[in-house]
Specification:
The chain has 170 residues and is an all-alpha fold. The chain is 79% helix and 0% strand. The longest helix has 32 residues. The chain starts with a helix and ends with a helix.
């Protein structure tokens, strides 16, 4: 029960931490997408209901914090969750290289979705600045993904959402 009550609060803390890390380390120019790693983790480790709710709430909270169009990040995060969930049956999480490779694919998917939807929603061309910001941001996400997969698993186990059998996989 504590798992379900604490998840929205922990997601808000994660998004605030993510924004503050971005501001402190990169002066707000490059984002540290810890929330994207959580969505990918949810696709691999959680069932449809829990992972879908986490992806939806993360997208909703990010829409609220970023002030973006309603449902923009919700669509992106739920889409990435579904792709991750489908891939979880084919990809083993035993190797960090596979985690990093799949995170790269999901980060690129997010970039493609943003590049396609942003001009439609905001009537602004972002292609000029996107590569300067998006490539370093993707590299950062790839490098930190194995560490955060392990951290998220530890948090899930602590809150009672995981079991000891899965611990040996990571």
């Amino acid at each position: 029960m504590i798992y379900y009550l604490s998840m929205p609060f922990l997601m808000l803390v994660l998004l605030v931490l993510q924004n503050k890390l971005s501001d402190m380390l990169f002066f707000g120019i490059i984002g540290v997408e810890i929330s994207l790693i959580l969505v990918i983790y949810a696709g691999f480790r959680l069932d449809v209901i829990r992972g879908g709710v986490i992806s939806f709430l993360l997208g909703f909270f990010l829409d609220c914090i970023a002030g973006s169009a309603s449902g923009f990040h919700v669509f992106i995060y739920v889409s990435i969750f579904l792709v991750s969930m489908m891939a979880s049956h084919k990809i083993s999480l035993d190797k960090t290289s596979l985690i990093m490779s799949f995170t790269l694919m999901c980060a690129l998917l997010k970039g493609v979705i943003i590049a396609c939807l942003y001009p439609l929603i905001y009537r602004t061309d972002i292609s000029v600045h996107a590569l300067k910001i998006y490539i370093p941001q993707t590299l950062i996400v790839i490098l930190i993904s194995p560490v955060f997969f392990h951290i998220f698993y530890r948090i899930e186990t602590f809150l009672g959402g995981g079991n000891a059998e899965q611990l040996e996989r990571t």
